[in-house]
Amino acid sequence: MAEKKNIVYIVNSLNLGGTENLVVQMSLAFQVDYTVSVICLDEPGLWAQKLRDEGIPVYCFWRQPGIDLAMATKIAKYCKKHKVGLIHAHQCTPWFYAALSRVLYPSPKLLFEEHGRHYPERYSWKKNIINRWVIEKLTTKIVAVSADVRQRLVQYEGVSQNRIDVVYNGVSPPPRISKDRRELLRRQLGLQPEDFVIGTVGRLDPIKNIPLLLKALADVRHTHTSVKSLLVGDGPERQQLQKITVSLNIEESTIFVGYRKDATDLLQCMDLFVLCSFSEGTSMALLEAMAAGIPAIVTDVGGNPELITNNVNGWVIPTDSPVDLIRAIDEALENKEHTANMAENGQQRFHSSFTFDSMLQNYGRYYEELMNQP
Description:
Elements: E1 6-11, H1 18-30, E2 35-40, H2 48-53, E3 58-60, H3 70-81, E4 84-90, H4 92-104, E5 109-114, H5 125-135, E6 141-144, H6 147-157, E7 164-166, H7 179-188, E8 196-201, H8 210-220, E9 227-232, H9 238-247, E10 254-258, H10 263-267, E11 272-275, H11 284-291, E12 296-299, H12 304-307, E13 315-317, H13 322-334, H14 336-353, H15 356-371
């Protein structure tokens, strides 16, 4: 039996987030065919133990503030010791250090995958020059998770557009919960059968612009008192968001559940999913909502409009626009047949283009192609 080839994923950490969750799922999937390990630059994170329990090593190199060139040396030494054939770097900082490591040990091929972008973006001509003439030349393959992210890599990172492929994220369809299970979960959350639940799933971070959702809900409840909100996830904004619900007098109708392992079950307790971010790559939570047949409202940023076509399989609204969000929520509440049709269209769109298996097939082809190169 042929010895498995070694691949290593490099990520900032394995704390809660869409990128980190994808690294975990890809590691578990590809360990069947490869010897997989993970390097975290900053800290192991909450999901590191999950991989270790499955026999996948997770190492942390404890990056220091500023440009820590020791990271490149550590990555090179690791790759040489473990005969790594491929480095898959997730996001720009791991890409930078992984590329520099190839100056010291060029044997592994390097695949860089960009998931999302900071908001607001900042242009740096120095960074663009370094990336174009140094880091890009040390990179074997570059992938963006949406066409929008590809364009931002060109504009803000100086990457050559013809070097970038687009591979959309994929998720496994969440197991469908029974009607009884849904009713039980909703009762446990304090919801009534007639409540219309609007919610979101993800890290409670400023980039998600959740205050916009809360303000819209406060307005909608003036005419639709059965509307409740469900926020699944945790993060630095949680305390501030809870204060906002008090100031808007919606604390009794807003449910914060924090991080939950049964997040996909709670997602299916919602009647409408809202993603009002300032910036997105390809949202894993949005894909899960589409897969579960939950109608969605999204802002016109990042990869959102590449997944959702306005008034076909959801609503696409201008970013940071309370008026447009309120209008979309009102339409979802008042035109139930149209809402159901869009949910069904979203589910069909998911199965045609965004499954986890199709994403794995794309990366599997890259892995074999790259590691078979001279």
